[in-house]
Amino acid sequence: MHPIRCPVCDKKSMIKYSPETREGATMNCPECNALLLNRNHHVLDFHKWLHYENEGDWPLDGVGTSNVCID
C-alpha cells in the first residue's frame, strides 16, 4: 500500500499501487471522489491539469464533461 495526499480535499489515503508504477493512470479519491491523475510521480487534480495543458479549453472543475479520449 502507498500513501497519497489528494490535491482536492487534502486528505491522506492509501492506494494499492504506487503513483510511480501507474504513470498516466487516473483514479478517484477514496475520500472526496475527485478524479486524480498520476503524473510525473505526483498525484494531481485531473481537471485542473487538463485545463492548463489545453490552454483553458477544458473546464477547470470538469463540469459538463464526461469522457476523455487521448490520442
How would you characterize the overall build of this protein?
This protein has 1 helix and 5 strands. It is of the alpha+beta class. The mean pLDDT is 88. It has a single domain, classed as Rubrerythrin, domain 2 (Single Sheet), CATH 2.20.28. It has one helix at 46-53, and strands spanning 2-5, 12-15, 26-28, 35-39, 42-45.
Count the domains.
Answer: 1
- Overall outline: globular
Strands of the biggest beta sheet: in what spatial order?
A: 3-4-5
Distance between the termini: 31 Å
Radius of gyration: 12 Å
Q: What structural class should be given to the helix and strand makeup?
A: alpha+beta
Name the CATH class: Mainly Beta
* SS element count, helices: 1
Helical proportion, percent range: 10-25%
Q: Quick gist of this model?
A:
Helix content is 11%, strand content 28%. It is α+β, with helices and mostly antiparallel strands. The chain has one domain: Rubrerythrin, domain 2 (Single Sheet).
Topology summary:
Blueprint: E1 2-5, E2 12-15, E3 26-28, E4 35-39, E5 42-45, H1 46-53
Antiparallel strand pairs: 1-2, 3-4, 4-5
Q: Which tags fit this structure?
A:
71 residues; 3-stranded antiparallel beta sheet
